[in-house]
Specification:
Blueprint: H1 6-83, H2 87-136, H3 138-181
Length: about 180
């Protein structure tokens, strides 16, 4: 074995002590870090548990509200079904109404047929009477027409005569004026 000098031994011991102190410090640092991490972890766990509890309570409340809403909807649907009139009952009442209206329309048409026949007979009689009156008075109508034609012709002839007289008078006046100028 070789001998070590004392100064190296002291150096070795002081290095060892420094090393031991460093290890102790490192160990203490890790403890503190672990305690901080543990404290953070505990805080995080508490917050996580509080959030989970709050979420569970909210979900339970939503489930209760949803179940109440579903039950209310079910009651409303049952009320609507109770108020609902069946299609068959409506169809039966509509058929009865349609048959009643058909009977009324048929009665009106039957009455109108009598009125239409009566009206057509009266109209035909009026036309026949007017035709007979025209035929019966054909001679009087012809005489009246002839009188009107003769009267119109006489008026035309009078007007032509009057026009000739006026023209002759105008010519005579012009002739006298011409004589007077000369």
């Amino acid at each position: 074995m070789s001998r070590m000098p004392i100064s190296s031994l002291v150096s070795f011991t002081s290095d060892t002590i420094s090393m031991a102190e460093m290890l102790a410090m490192l160990h203490e640092f890790q403890k503190r870090k672990a305690s901080k991490t543990s404290a953070r972890s505990i805080t995080f766990q508490n917050q996580k548990n509080a959030l989970s509890t709050n979420a569970r309570q909210t979900a339970e409340k939503a489930i209760r509200n949803g179940a109440a809403a579903i039950e209310q909807a079910r009651v409303t649907i049952l009320d609507f079904k109770a108020q609902e009139v069946s299609q068959e009952a409506t169809l039966v009442s509509l058929k009865a109404l349609l048959e009643s209206q058909d009977d009324c329309v048929q009665a009106v048409l039957d009455n109108l047929n009598g009125v239409i026949e009566d009206l057509s007979h009266r109209r035909a009689k009026q036309i026949d009477d007017a035709s007979a009156m025209l035929e019966a008075q054909a001679l009087a109508r012809e005489r009246s027409r002839k009188r009107l034609v003769e009267h119109a012709r006489a008026r035309i002839e009078e007007n032509l005569e009057h026009q000739k007289t006026v023209t002759d008078a105008s010519n005579l006046i012009k002739h006298y004026k011409a004589l007077l100028r000369c």
